Amino acid sequence: AAAAEALRRHGYEGPVALVGKEKPVDRPNLSKDYLAGTAQEDWIPLRSEEFYKEAGIDLIEAEVSRVDTAEQVVQLESGETIPYDALLLATGAEPRHIPIPGADLPHVFYLRTLADTKDIISALDGAQRAVIVGAGFIGLEVAASLRQRDVGVTVVAPEEVPLAALIGDALGRFVQDLHEEHGVDFRLGRGVNEIGQKAVTLDDGAVIPADLVVVGIGVVPRTGLADEAGLDTDKGVIVNEHLRTSDPNIWAAGDIARYPGPDSEPVRIEHWVLAERQGQTAARNMLGHDVAFKDPPFFWSQHYDIPINVTGHLGDWDDDVVVGNPSEHDVIVGYSKGGVIKAIATIYRDRENLQAERALAEGDQEWLRNLLVLD
């Protein structure tokens, strides 16, 4: 969606087809305000159908069955084909499923699409208890949203501190405390052995009542089309710094794209803002601009009324420095490896987060080090 709009902004006047099973929606909202009942459904589409018509973007709700690189056509499940001179693959990711007895029961849900969220909301009618499997950002955002609907929530996860591997012990314990203050029950260091009709059985034998279960244990990139088209893939679709795949007429962006990171090591990032920026960069490169994608990743996570903003590459750090106090909702955390600051997380320090984004993009380690000795 971001790429289609960028093509028009940069002067392309030829045909643009935007093809997918789901219309472009505000996906982060699906686990946040919309699930909590505080956002109206008409807020969820990114653009109106009138917008796409006026922009000359052909919005096609359909599943793509294959990409024929020799003929340069995209084939839909209906058999219809759409020719292309330049193609962007932005097929995203799909939830990882849990391989245990009862995982296919009708009250077990995964959250990725608007339809998924609607199914969860429908299941809340008369529900008193929910079990969330997984204490990552999606699982905890779902927990917060269900608590705002007065549903009892138990979170089950194998780690001892939620999110600690990603954002560190200090912020992880703060997030856990915040959820516990809102009535969430945590069963950490535990796994789920079986899901029953009205309860979940843990690996220690504990039985947790559950009218519904939401599983959030990560996602896998949807590389099927790229694999079948013969593109280079390895835990994602391999692209160069211009987001171009091994086929010169095809680009990839978003959750599927494995691109050169800060140290030229391939990285794949599952963040909304980064996907938008990659789509915009890919669009420019389709038009011959030759722009290297160097933007630091950014994401935010909302827990009740507390947002956590993160800028930079969080996947590989060995030390964190905490400036301020998470419990006072005023904190900066820096993440470094070998003394090099890789990422910054903040709570209610938006200006510093934006400045850190620029410093990370420019490699200004001195500014970042000075930021982490404030207060």
Q: How would you describe what is shown here?
A:
- By secondary structure, the chain is an alpha/beta fold.
- The chain has 10 helices and 25 strands.
- It has helices at 2-9, 33-36, 49-55, 114-123, 137-148, 164-181, 224-228, 272-286, 350-362, 365-371, and strands at 16-20, 57-61, 64-68, 73-76, 81-83, 87-89, 93-95, 108-109, 129-133, 152-157, 185-188, 192-195, 199-202, 207-209, 212-215, 219-221, 237-238, 250-252, 257-260, 266-267, 298-303, 306-312, 319-325, 330-337, 340-347.
- It has a 5-stranded parallel β-sheet, covered by helices on one side. The chain has a 5-stranded antiparallel β-sheet with strand order 21-22-25-24-23, sandwiched between helices.
- The model has no long low-confidence stretch (mean pLDDT 96).
